[in-house]
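Subgroup meeting minutes
Present: P.N., E.W., G.H.
Scribe: E.W.

1. P.N. recapped why we're keeping a running log of single-chain structure predictions: easier to compare across weeks, and new members can see raw inputs and outputs side by side.
2. G.H. added today's entry (73 aa).
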Amino acid sequence: MEFFSLIQALALLALVYFLQLTVASVSLTQYIRMGLLLNPDEFLAAPNISQTPLTELEQLIIPKPIPDLRLYT
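Output recorded in log:
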């Protein structure tokens, strides 16, 4: 009986974890859409990502382009 309740608890935990992942991904897109629909001026006034300088951490994270070595052969 104890083993069966342990399996039930693990299955319930896995289900809750899966539902949290699903809700998180859906709610993220909904928040973006709601924000665009409810307050588009705030999004339009936000600085463009390509125009803002990168922080030091972002410069480390974003991969650098690999040079094309065929140009030198």
